[in-house]
Amino acid sequence: MDSLVCPVQEEESSPWSPALSFCFWFGFAFLVIKSCICKRRKPHREAKTNMASSTIRAVEEILSYRFKDKSLLEEALTHSSYYNNNNNGESFRSYQRLEFLGDMVLGLALSKYLYLKYPSLDPGHLSPLHDANISNEKLVRVAVRHHLDSYIRHNISDFQSEVKEFARAARAISQEDDKVLYGSIKAPNILADIVESLAGAIYVDLNFNLQKLWVIFENLLEPIVTLEDLQQQPEPVRTFFEQCQKQGRKPDIKRLSSGENNIVGAYVDDVLVALGSSDQMDIARRNAAKLALHELPNFMATNITEH
Q: Rounded to whole angstroms, how far apart are CA atoms 232 and 239?
């Protein structure tokens, strides 16, 4: 019997590099070990599904992937609110477990990609790249761009109106701003969940092959934000502080709430100028500063006599 060897052991006296530690911080060690353990996983039996074959074909075409186990795709597209009116309200298995797995492996696959693409980049620069490519808003845009919302099984009354509102707001943002997402638009979380659950479903269907998963999802996530994209973007937090200080004002950025949706306030002379929000705290800070820069000229003009 072949031995299962996972390349995660280091000499006790050899400290990990900061970039490698970055990957472990995203669960690299756990998932590599899990991948090794699951390498001999038995293939799925042909499972029965209640999803229309036309829906299965359409989503498989979007993903450029044909599922061996169609029930995984059905599960990945089923929200917990869904039920079958013709079957006495019988519940179906929702996407929650696959979303949990997909969140982990998609973050890991992206971390591995960035780690290999930028071998000399430190974690301080890798983290913004990771956040920009896998933020909640980014994943929602992916779902909207590929019309995945049309195939979700749910019973949420205002879901389609939320999707349309998000799509209108997203189109209003310039292509340049679209490449580096600052979380300025309220995104329907279910769409990000679906992208993650599809990642989890494909990962399981591929017998836990991370490399093949990334080949599929790299195309789905295009355009991938690069280091050059980030470097070309003005740094709004630094610019906000510099502009305020040049005019003798006191700038500040404060966290107002944290959790699933972080809210940050940008202040000038202890007066709230703008709010920013995102599922990523760093992006929320950038968004608040960016909005504050738009409000700054008017704020300075109306408060000049009071200063």
A: 14
